[in-house]
Automatic annotation (TrEMBL):
It comes from the Eukaryota. Keywords: Kinase, Lyase, Metal-binding, Pyruvate, Transferase. Residues 78-292 form the HpcH/HpaI aldolase/citrate lyase domain. It comes from Cercophora samala. This is Pyruvate/Phosphoenolpyruvate kinase-like domain-containing protein. The keyword Metal-binding applies. Pfam families: HpcH_HpaI. GO terms for molecular function: aldehyde-lyase activity; kinase activity; metal ion binding. The keyword rRNA-binding does not apply. Belongs to the HpcH/HpaI aldolase family. InterPro entries: Aldolase/citrate-lyase_domain (IPR005000), HpcH-HpaI_aldolase (IPR050251), Pyrv/PenolPyrv_kinase-like_dom (IPR015813), Pyrv_kinase-like_dom_sf (IPR040442).
Length: 317
């Protein structure tokens, strides 16, 4: 029994060495993962789908026929992710900044969304490079970085999101490829990720607003956070009312972004507001947030059941 076990272990080790040597000689071995990158014949490689076609949000941008509509996920759970993705969205924002979404919940949400042909986008808690890596390694189709202030911060984010030679992102996650359909090989992911994944930053500080002409050309999407932007320029949104100065700032960001040839997105609190910004030419628009939509639906249903007349709702995050 001992001899049989030893012989089997030796044979297995020999097999691993053979595979490793063949992989290294083919330039496909990834020592950090500890496994060879998948081999493909030339005919199979030629027929393989480009990762860009798996990124629905990127596809909507490329077709440029309509705005990309999406939902905000703040409540953890793959079933919540699926509900949002099945509701006709082009993308779902997995909110790790203000939502109740930690790293594990993010890794549950991203594949649940992607499996339904919708783009999972992750809003990071902060601008730190390791957060960019975690989000993209989970298989997110893009990242959104909040509270940007300087051009250097944007450059750092872009670098963290790109593989060399365009950036400094490390290559080592076999998880990411599972969220593109048909599934690319690890080699294909490495070769195509820089062009296929979306890097987005939020303009919601006065410093970023003042530098938007320099920021816009650096990223794929400039996304406006009206609430924090209003706070930071001295014109907060109170009971849903937006001052003219905030409207002017939003219009300026949109104009600069379009002039730079990039896409401009905005956070909206409901369908009516989303339609308004769609008509203004915004490319990426949040329509609703799971938390507030759930709360609003429950309150409304209860009011009807109790025979009460609902008052006018103010815009809510």
């Amino acid at each position: 029994m001992v001899r049989t076990t030893t012989a089997f272990a030796g044979a297995l080790q020999t097999f691993r060495l053979c595979i490793s040597r063949h992989s290294v000689s083919s330039g496909l071995y990834h020592p950090r993962i500890g496994q060879p990158l998948r081999f493909m014949s030339s005919s199979t490689m030629a027929a393989s789908a480009n990762m860009i076609t798996s990124n629905k949000l990127k596809q909507v941008f490329t077709e440029d026929k309509r705005p990309a509509m999406g939902f905000w996920q703040m409540i953890p759970g793959a079933n919540v992710s699926r509900i949002l993705a099945r509701s006709g969205a082009d993308w779902v924002m997995v909110d790790c900044e203000h939502g109740n979404i930690d790293d594990a919940a993010m890794h549950d949400a991203v594949p649940a969304i992607a499996a339904l042909g919708v783009s999972p986008i992750v809003r990071l808690p902060d601008i730190q490079p390791w957060m960019v890596k975690r989000a993209l390694d989970s298989g997110a189709h893009g990242i959104l970085v909040p509270l940007i202030r300087t051009v250097d911060e944007v450059k750092s984010v872009v670098s963290a999101a790109k593989f060399p030679p365009l950036g400094t992102r490390g290559f080592g996650s076999p998880i990411a490829v599972q969220n593109f359909h048909p599934e690319p090989t690890l080699t294909e992911y490495l070769q195509q990720a820089n062009d296929s994944l979306l890097t987005m930053v939020q303009i919601e500080t006065k410093e970023a607003l003042d530098s938007v002409e320099e920021i816009a050309p650096l990223v794929d999407v400039v996304f406006i956070g009206p609430f924090d932007l209003g706070n930071n320029i001295g014109h907060p949104i109170i009971n849903g009312k937006m001052d003219a100065e905030l409207d002017d700032a939003i219009a300026r960001i949109h104009k600069v972004t379009v002039a730079a040839g990039k896409k401009c997105g905005i956070f909206c609190t409901g369908g009516e507001q989303a339609k308004k910004y769609a008509d203004m030419g915004f490319h990426m628009i949040n329509v609703a947030t799971d938390f507030t939509a759930l709360q609003s639906t429950m309150v409304s249903a209860l009011a009807v059941a109790q025979g009460k007349v609902e008052g006018e709702k103010a815009a809510s995050y």
